Amino acid sequence: MTLIWKNFIENGWCFLDNDIENCRWIEAAKANIRNKFRQKEYRDSDFRSGASWFAGINFLDNGIGGDVDGISFSSVLWSQISGNFGVKIKYWDAAQVSICWQGYPSKDPSESEKSFKYRLKKYSSHVDGLIPIGSSKRRFAKEFHAFILGIPITNNRVDSAPLMVWEGSHKIFRNMFRKAFAGLSENEVSDLDVTEIYQECRRKVFTTCPVKKVFSHNNQPYILDRHLLHGMGSWSAPIDGSLLQPRNNLFPINPMSGRIVIYFRPAYKNALDWITQN
Q1: What domains sit in the chain, N to C, each tagged with a CATH number?
Q2: Which pLDDT does position 219 carry in this prediction?
Q3: What is the predicted pLDDT for the residue at 109?
Q4: Which of 25, 178, 249, 267 sits between 20 and 30 A of 227, alpha carbons compared?
């Protein structure tokens, strides 16, 4: 087992290797993102936190092999991932394109003061796959992905809304999920309300696990354990006029002026692997 996967198992995340193929893929992804913004192929609902964050859910036009506009996904990167996950995943999902601009996080008019304070103090931390349902935002397991792959493509610095991770938190949540979902079918798992035990685990993580900023030099990709608690830090860099995001319809939105990370979350072929796999 290589050192990077030892770090992944112990801490819940690690960097992966970068290569020329990934650099070519990034350029294709940039072109795809620019074109979609130029054509206004985005949802207004994806602009959040006072338009300082574009959530970009399933925004990238990639194929099921991760290719973008004829440019193949990095074989080196895929080899590293498949060496650890084998043939357990279905295919590459349509990737998220997460863009932050200076000023993140700003408060949405519809956002409660409690929610905004949580975004500021705890970086809106969460475990992916647990979906808040209804006005009371009860938590249910609805998405059974194998991992989270982040590919930074522009303006990634320690002070530009970095990824925040609680190292080791995946072990606490994995243990909780295995106890809560023991013996249940996929449908039964999806129907079980885990709000209270999720909140209890999160409180434990806040007091026992170190939080770390993850940012990438030279667009080096990283992978997160599916159960790792993570969030997004504030944009604390000094104001730079060239990176300001226009806030009205008189000016085109420039995605490349923001901090962009592309996220893949491929699903397991067997949904229950989300619970049982180490």
Answers
A1: 3-269 (2.60.120)
A2: 93
A3: 84
A4: 25
